[in-house]
Each structure stands twice: as structure tokens, then as C-alpha cells.
Amino acid sequence: KEVLQEKIVDKVQAFNDAQTNKGSKIQKIIIVPSLNDMHHHSVYPQFPFPKSSIPKSAKDLVYFASNPFTCEINGFTIGMESVDVLMALRKSIVHNKETKGMAWLASELIRQRSFFPLFPMPKGVNFDSTFGKCLEFEKDKTPNILILPSLLKEFAKEIDGVICVNPSMVV
User: Rounded to whole angstroms, how far apart are CA atoms 125 and 132?
Assistant: First the structure.
């Protein structure tokens, strides 16, 4: 709890204070857990950090999401996860790796309606199959925007009506 407070929440509050002093204000910061977090369960899918970890002064600023998660903002459905699914898909291709570009990799998530359309899971992803349904897109709700951080080359591309973005890895 102290690590989360010191390393994340305090920095978010300081950033928000600086933005407020410049005349703008952050509406909400969404924090998604990672399998690499030393202070959180390293089993996928992941539950959000406990709400009790957020100090009262930051309750309106910080939102702890699950991994993966879906939310709706101004009528757009946004899906995100912190597991490098694009790299896992790239490594799973048996034939013709060089012809399978980023668009194809991201299209597999859309086509299979899943945040992680591979089974068995690759080495390094501790998967709890009892929560496998959490990896599926919501019924009749394909995200309008998919944020898929990966070590592969960054991109933003419209694929089958979905804007897919790899902003690169943050952590």
C-alpha cells in the first residue's frame, strides 16, 4: 500500500496540482495493473488495486481498473490491457511471420472478440482459467478503441471499424 501511495498516487496528485496551477485540470487517471507489479497479484486477468489504496484527497482523481478493462467515455467504448498480447501473437505464428503485420495481429483480437485470443497462454503469463470469461469482449460491444501496449513498433490504425493503438510499453 505504501509503495502504491508513494510511487503512483503521490505523483498523480503532484501532476494534477501542477496542471491545476497552469489553468487546466485532469478529469480522471485510470491505473491498470501489470503482471510485473511487485505489489499486486501476478495472475491474469487481474483485479483492480484495492480502492482503500486511494487516499481521500485523490478519490475523485484516480480510478483503479482491472486488467483487461473496458469503459465508456463520451459514447466511445475503450478497451485496454497491460499484457503484451501483440508480442505473444507474433511469437505464436508458425508460418510466414514477416507477412503478418501489426494490423493483422490486432485484427485477431477483434475477430475472436477476446483481449487475449491464445490458448495455452505463453510462458510468463500466469493465467487463471476460472476467469477466462473476463478476457472476452462484452456481448455485442466491440470496443471503438483498443489500447494494446507492446514492445513491438508503435502504431495507431483503424482496423475493422476499431481504432487500435500500441503506444509502446509504459513500464
Answer: 13
- The three cell numbers of residue 105 are 495481429
Query: What string of DSSP letters covers 25-60?
Result: ----EEE---TT-TTS--SBSBPPPPGGGS-GGGTT
The pLDDT tens digits for 108-143 are 999 999 999 988 888 878 888 888 888 999 888 899
Please count the CA atoms within 13 angstroms of the CA of 150 that sit on its side-chain side: 22
Alpha-carbon distance of 1 to 18, in angstroms, equals 24
Contact 152, 106 (CB under 8 A): no
Whole-structure pTM value: 0.82
65-108 pLDDT, tens digit each: 999 999 998 899 999 999 999 999 988 877 665 556 888 899 99
Q: Which three cell numbers stand for residue 118?
A: 491464445
On whether the CB atoms of residues 121 and 55 are closer than 8 A, the answer is no
Type and span of the H or E element at 162: strand 162-166
